[in-house]
Write a structure and sequence with these properties.
heterodimer, A: Alkaline Phosphatase, subunit A, three-stranded antiparallel β-sheet, 13 strands, 35% helix, B: mainly alpha, two-stranded antiparallel sheet, two-stranded antiparallel ribbon, 21 helices
Chain lengths: 392, 445
C-alpha cells in the first residue's frame, strides 16, 4: 500500500490535510445536472490580491506616481485596451479576455470597507453589509434553498469556508475523495441505527451521519470512474483544480465547487511573491479551462475569481502594499454578454483613505451568478435586490 | 425533586466538562452538590514569561527584525492557547475555565497574534468569570485588547469611530436593535472618545480628544462619559435578559424557553449582575435537568471532556491546535467580534466525520473496532512522518476503569436516551467505550 492509502486506512491525520464529508440519500441522484443550470467554480485568492498590479491601469499617472518601485512598466504589459494591461504573468487570463471569455469587474467592493482580512473575508463570504454579522454563507444559503445533499457543494481544502455553510445544508470540504471516504467508512458507522427519538439535536446528528456516509461514497465512486490524464502545472493549486475537473468529468451532480489560493498579503517585497502566485493562478486556471474545453464542458462552467480586498494605491516603504478596499475580480464564461466587458473601470484620482472607491457591489455579481448560472432565486439568498449588471 | 446519578453526570459534564464517577458520591442534596462545585474552583491566572512590553519595539527595526518579532509573538500566543487548553482539564478549575470560555465567546477578541493582549484579556475574563458582570463589562471596555480590537484608539472628538459603541449595544449588552437607535450609537461613540491605554496597558482618558459636550442617549441628556453609558446600559433589564439568554444557550439548550429566561433574568438583575448567583440558580433549576443530551458540544468542550475522561496530556501542541482549527474553534481566534455561533453551526459533514473519528484516533490509532493488531500498530508508528499530527499518547485504561468502576458506561458517557445503543453496549470493556465515544450521541451533552 502506498503512503496515502496507508494513512487513510489507519486514520492518521497528516498536517494540513484532514479528512472530510457530507449528506444525501442514495436514491436522489438524477442522471444529468439540470440543463438550466451550469457549474460554478469559485476561486478565492486569500490575503488581499493586489488587483492594481494584476490589471494595471497604465493610462493613469496616479498609478505610476504612487508606485515608483512596484509599478509595472507599460512595455511589459499585455494590453487590454488603451488604459489597461494584464500583468505579464497573467498571459492565460489575457488570452481568455481577448477571446471574450473573461470579464474584468474592476472597482468591485462594498460600502464602508473593512480592512481586516478576517472581517472582510466574512463579508464576502456571507454577502453581508459591513456592519452586519451573519452566520451563513451565500453559497450555503443557496444550498439551503436549492439543494438536498452535501455533495452539491464541494470545496477542495482542509476546512469548509463560511461561504459554503448554510443553516440546514452545508457543502463538503475534502482534500482527497478517498481519505474522506475512509474517514467515515467503518463497519461500526455503517451499522449504527437511527434512534427513534424525540430529541431534535440527536435526530439532526443522525441525519448528518447518513448524509455524510452517502455523500462520501458517492463522491469517491464518481472520482474513481475516470482517470484524468490531462497534464496540469506543478503545485497544490493546480492539483486542486485538476481534482475539480476530474469530478466534473464524472458527471457528478455538483453545481458548486470552491477552492483557494493563499498568500496574497504582500506587505513586503511584493513583486517576487506576486509573480509566483500569478504563475500558480494563471497556470492552474489555463490548464483547467483547456481541460474542460477539450471535453466540450467548458460551456457548462463558470469560474469566479475574487479576493477579500485590494491593496492601497500607494506602495509602502518595504516594496509592498498595504490592505486596501475596492479591487478587480474575474468572471470566466464562454457566453458572456457584450456588457460584461464594460466593467473594467477605475478612478485613481478620487480615493478614500488612499484606496480606490468601489463602483460595483460584489453582491451584484453574486446575484447574477445565482440567477443566470445556478438558476436560483437570488432574493432570499442575498436578502435584498442589488443592481443588475447584465454579465450573461 | 430528586437528584440521581444521571443528574450528577449531567450537571458535572455541563459545568465542568467531565468528572469521573468516583468523585460524584459526595452528597445527594442538589443544592449542596452545586455549592461544592463552586467552592472547589481555583482561579489560576495564565502566565508565560514575556519581555516587558515595549511600545517602541518596532521603531528603527528592519523588516526582517519586525518579522522575527511578529513570528515570536504568534508563537507565544500559540503557547498560551496550549496552556489554557491544558488548564481546562484540571479538576479544580472545570467551572471557572468553562465560564472563562463562555465569556471569551461573548467578549470575543481576536488576540492570537499578540501574547500580551491574550494574557490581559484571558486573565481578566477568568478573574471576573464568576464575579460580577458589571465589573467584567467595565474591565473589558477598559482593556487594551478591546480598545485595540474595536478601534477605540481611532475614536476622537469630532471624528468618532463607532465600532465599539455599536458592538457594545448589539453584541455585549442589549442585543441587536433592542432599546437603542443609530443616533444612540453615535452619541455613545462620542462618550467613549479618548479611551485609550498607556504604555503599561492601564486605561486612561485622553482629554485632548475626549468630547465632553452634551449628548442625548436613551432619551436622557447630559455630559455623559463612557462609564455613565455603561451604567445606563446596566440599568436596562434587557441587558440582563440578553446575557442570561446567552448563558442558557451555552449551558442549557439552544431552543430557548421564555419562562426560563424571564426567571434567570430577574434573578440576575436583582442580584446586581452577580454571576455566581445566576449560575447557581440555573444549576438548581428543575428544567436544567430536563435538558439532558440536547446541546451539541463545542469543539473545545468535546476535546477537554475527552481529555479529562482519560487523563490525557495531549502532548503535541501542533496536533491539538490543528484539531482546534479543523473543528472550527481555535482559542484566542474567534471568527469575529460576535464569537462562535455554536449549536448546529459546529456541525458540517466535514467536521462531523472528524468528530466521529477523533476518539478512536486518540484512543485506538484510528480504529473504531478491535482491528488493531500489534504488527499494525508498529507499522503505523514506523510510517509516521514528522509533519503528521501524532496520536501516540498511551492510554491508561486501568485508571479509567478504576475511577469509573461502579458506573454503567452508557449512562456515564451518553447523556441522551438511546435504547438500541444502550442495549448493545452494556458490558464494561474498552471496545464498548470506544464504540460509544464514536457515536453521534457522544457529540451531545
Amino acid at each position: 500500500m502506498d503512503r496515502r492509502e496507508f494513512l487513510s486506512k489507519t486514520g492518521i491525520i497528516t498536517a494540513g490535510a484532514i479528512l472530510v464529508p457530507s449528506f444525501l440519500k442514495a436514491n436522489t441522484f438524477s442522471s444529468q445536472l439540470s440543463l438550466s443550470k451550469k457549474r460554478l467554480v469559485v476561486i478565492q485568492l486569500s490575503g488581499g490580491n493586489d488587483g492594481l498590479n494584476a490589471v494595471v491601469p497604465y493610462g493613469s499617472d496616479e498609478y505610476y506616481n504612487s508606485r515608483p518601485v512596484l509599478g509595472v512598466p507599460q512595455s511589459k504589459l499585455l494590453k487590454i485596451d488603451d488604459k489597461f494591461g494584464f500583468n505579464p504573468k497573467l498571459s492565460g487570463l489575457h488570452r481568455l479576455q481577448q477571446k471574450g471569455w473573461l470579464s474584468i469587474i474592476n472597482s468591485v467592493g462594498y460600502p464602508n470597507p473593512n480592512r481586516s482580512h478576517f472581517r472582510s473575508m466574512d463579508i464576502w463570504h456571507t454577502a453581508s453589509d459591513s456592519n452586519d454579522y451573519k452566520q451563513t454563507g451565500w453559497l450555503g444559503n443557496y444550498l439551503d434553498n436549492n439543494c438536498q445533499n452535501a455533495y452539491e457543494g464541494i470545496e477542495i481544502g482542509g476546512s469548509l469556508s463560511l461561504s459554503m455553510k448554510g443553516q440546514t445544508n452545508s457543502g463538503i470540504a475534502l482534500t482527497d475523495p478517498q481519505a474522506f471516504y475512509d474517514t467515515i467508512h467503518s463497519k461500526f458507522f455503517d451499522e449504527l441505527q437511527n434512534p427513534s427519538s424525540e430529541n431534535n439535536e440527536l435526530n439532526f446528528l443522525y441525519k448528518v451521519l447518513n448524509d455524510t456516509k452517502n455523500s462520501a461514497k458517492y463522491i469517491f465512486d464518481q472520482y474513481k470512474l475516470k482517470t484524468n490524464p490531462t497534464e496540469y502545472p506543478k503545485g497544490q493549486f493546480s492539483k486542486q483544480l485538476k481534482q475539480i475537473s476530474t469530478l466534473i468529468k464524472s458527471d457528478i451532480q455538483t453545481p458548486v465547487f470552491y477552492t483557494t489560493l493563499g498568500g496574497f498579503d504582500t506587505h513586503v517585497n511584493q513583486e517576487g511573491m506576486q509573480d509566483y502566485l500569478f504563475e500558480q493562478l494563471d497556470g492552474g486556471v489555463s490548464a483547467f479551462v483547456n481541460d474542460l474545453e477539450k471535453d466540450d464542458i467548458l460551456k457548462d462552467t463558470t469560474i469566479v475569481i475574487f479576493s477579500e480586498f485590494g491593496r492601497r494605491l500607494k506602495e509602502n516603504a518595504s516594496r509592498g502594499t498595504d490592505h486596501g478596499a475596492a479591487n478587480a475580480m474575474f468572471v470566466i464564461d464562454t457566453n458572456l454578454s457584450k456588457k460584461a466587458h464594460t466593467f473594467n473601470q477605475i478612478d485613481l484620482a478620487n480615493l478614500e483613505n488612499g484606496d480606490p472607491i468601489y463602483k460595483v457591489d460584489f453582491r451584484s455579481v453574486y446575484q447574477e451568478v445565482l440567477a443566470s448560472i445556478l438558476g436560483a432565486d437570488p432574493r432570499p439568498i442575498l436578502g435584498r435586490k442589488f443592481d443588475d449588471l447584465g454579465l450573461f | 425533586m430528586g437528584f440521581n446519578l444521571e443528574d450528577k453526570y449531567h450537571l458535572s459534564q455541563r459545568a465542568e466538562f467531565f468528572v469521573h464517577h468516583h468523585l460524584l458520591d459526595t452528597t445527594d442534596d442538589r443544592a449542596k452538590f452545586v455549592n461544592a462545585i463552586f467552592s472547589r474552583q481555583t482561579n489560576k491566572l495564565l502566565y508565560i514569561k514575556l519581555p516587558k512590553w515595549d511600545p517602541n519595539s518596532f521603531k528603527n527595526k528592519s523588516d526582517k527584525q519586525k518579522r522575527t518579532i511578529r513570528k515570536q509573538r504568534r508563537q507565544q500566543a500559540k503557547q498560551l492557547n496550549y496552556l489554557w487548553f491544558k488548564q481546562m482539564m484540571e479538576n479544580d478549575k472545570g467551572l471557572i475555565e468553562k465560564m472563562t470560555l463562555f465569556w471569551h465567546g461573548h467578549f470575543a477578541c481576536r488576540t492570537i497574534d499578540n501574547p500580551y493582549l491574550t494574557l490581559e484579556m484571558n486573565n481578566l475574563l477568568r478573574t471576573n468569570a464568576l464575579g460580577n458582570f458589571k465589573d467584567l463589562l467595565f474591565a473589558v471596555s477598559k482593556s487594551a485588547s478591546m480598545i485595540n480590537y474595536l478601534h477605540l484608539r481611532q475614536n476622537k472628538k469630532g471624528k468618532a469611530n463607532e465600532d465599539f459603541a455599536r458592538e457594545l449595544c448589539e453584541l455585549f449588552t442589549l442585543g441587536r436593535d433592542v432599546d437603542y437607535t443609530e443616533k444612540d450609537v453615535s452619541e455613545i461613540a462620542r462618550s467613549f472618545t479618548g479611551w485609550r491605554t498607556d504604555d503599561d496597558g492601564n486605561h486612561i482618558i485622553v482629554d485632548r480628544v475626549h468630547d465632553s459636550g452634551e449628548k442625548t442617549i436613551f432619551g436622557k441628556t447630559g455630559n455623559f462619559n463612557g462609564e455613565d453609558v455603561l451604567n445606563m446600559i446596566l440599568e436596562n433589564k434587557h441587558t440582563s435578559e440578553f446575557i442570561v439568554t446567552k448563558m442558557y444557550k451555552f449551558f442549557v439548550k439552544e431552543d430557548i424557553n421564555s419562562e426560563h429566561i424571564g426567571e434567570l433574568s430577574t434573578v440576575f438583575y436583582n442580584a446586581n449582575y452577580d454571576i455566581t448567583t445566576v449560575m447557581k440558580h440555573l444549576f438548581n433549576a428543575d428544567w436544567f435537568y430536563d435538558s439532558k443530551g440536547q446541546l451539541i458540544k463545542g469543539p473545545i468542550e468535546f476535546l477537554v471532556g475527552l481529555g479529562k475522561m482519560f487523563d490525557l496530556k495531549y502532548p503535541h501542541q501542533t496536533a491539538i491546535q490543528g484539531i482546534q482549527y479543523y473543528l472550527g474553534q481555535v482559542l484566542f481566534d474567534p471568527p469575529n467580534v460576535a464569537g462562535w455561533a455554536g449549536g448546529r453551526h459546529w456541525i458540517d459533514a466535514s467536521r462531523f466525520a472528524l468528530r466521529l473519528r477523533l476518539p478512536s484516533l486518540i484512543l485506538n490509532r484510528g480504529y473504531v473496532m478491535d482491528e488493531l493488531t500489534p504488527e499494525l500498530d508498529e507499522m503505523i508508528a514506523k510510517n509516521q512522518k514528522k509533519k503528521d499530527f501524532k496520536f501516540d499518547e498511551p492510554i491508561d485504561w486501568e485508571q479509567f476503569w478504576l475511577k469509573n468502576k461502579d458506573a454503567n458506561i452508557f449512562d456515564l458517557l451518553i447523556r441522551n436516551e438511546n435504547d438500541k445503543l444502550k442495549g448493545s453496549h452494556n458490558e464494561a470493556n474498552n471496545k464498548n467505550v470506544i464504540h460509544l465515544l464514536s457515536t453521534p450521541d457522544f457529540q451531545l451533552t
